[in-house]
Amino acid sequence: MTKNERYEAVIAYFEQTMPVAETELHFGNDFQLLVAVMLSAQCTDKRVNMVTPALFEAFPTPAAMAAASEEEVLAYVKSVSYPNSKAKHLVEAARQLTERFGGEVPSTLDELTSLPGVGRKTANVVMSVVFGKAAMAVDTHVFRVSHRIGLVAEKAKTPLAVEQELVKHFPEALIPKAHHWLILHGRYICKALKPLCMECGLRCACAYYNKKS
Fold first, then answer.
1. Which residues, other chains included, contact 84 with Cβ-Cβ below 8 Å and sequence gap of 6+?
2. CA–CA separation, 49 and 138 (whole Å)
3. What is the pTM of this model?
4. Which of its termini does the chain have fewer beta carbons within 10 Å around, N or C?
């Protein structure tokens, strides 16, 4: 199977089985999504969703969070991974949103990654989910699933290399949805330690499955 044929098979499968693919983070506006994605780094969406309702109620806007102390924010996020640094980054990012962007979440990679605690992956999620841009965020699920299926070459050793290869091969209009396809597939089927290959409809197109069988 050629790489193009593999992408065609993957797209056809997900279009049929997962026509709607969205983030599992709960949010009500652009700022809330940014905060949730920042909190989700090396943390489960389930845990983040347990924390954010009270956090958003206490600090509903960038201005409200910017006026808070790190300790006040920490009290709400202490159960997520790396709570101290995340609380610090949330307050600093909220201040910059207020001072530099008029309280609005910016829409470009350069602007987003200029915010404290916002890396390329977080920025790509925001650009994709909020602004519908063809941005491919590569987390551990996307990285693993892309390699296992054979969507990217083995030599693609970094998240950026994987991102560039996926963006090159997925049709631009599908990139925002493809990001969620790969995440959700990795979260529930193509798991890190025990991939559920016999429950997977992509076996015929999967390099990992066909190699081991």
1. 70, 74
2. 21
3. 0.91
4. C
| The pLDDT of residue 60 | 96
CB proximity list for 53: less than 8 A, separation 6 or greater? 26
DSSP H stretches of helix in 18-108: 30-39, 45-58, 62-66, 70-77, 83-100
**Burial category of 171 from C-beta neighbours within 10 Å (exposed 0-12, middle 13-18, buried 19 and up):** exposed
Q: Residue 47's CB: how many other CB atoms inside 10 A?
A: 14
Helix axes 175-188, 140-149, angle to 10 degrees: 90
138-168 core/surface letters (b: 16 or more CB in 10 A; e: else): bbebbbbbbbbbbbbeeebeebeebbebbbe
- pLDDT band of 213, cuts 50, 70, 90: low
CB atoms within 10 A of CB 58: 14
Q: Which residues contact 59 (CB under 8 A, 6 or more apart)?
A: 65, 68, 73, 94
pLDDT of residue 1: 86
Rounded to a whole number of angstroms, the CA Rg of the chain reads 18
133: left (phi over 0), alpha (psi -120 to 50) or beta: beta
pLDDT digits (tens, 9 = 90+) for 111-150: 999 999 999 999 999 999 999 999 999 999 999 999 999 9
Q: Which residues are catalytic?
A: 121, 139
Decide if 189 contacts 200 (C-beta within 8 A): yes
Look at residue 211 in the predicted model and tell me its pLDDT. 86
Burial label, 56 (beta-carbon count in 10 A; 0-12, 13-18, 19+): buried
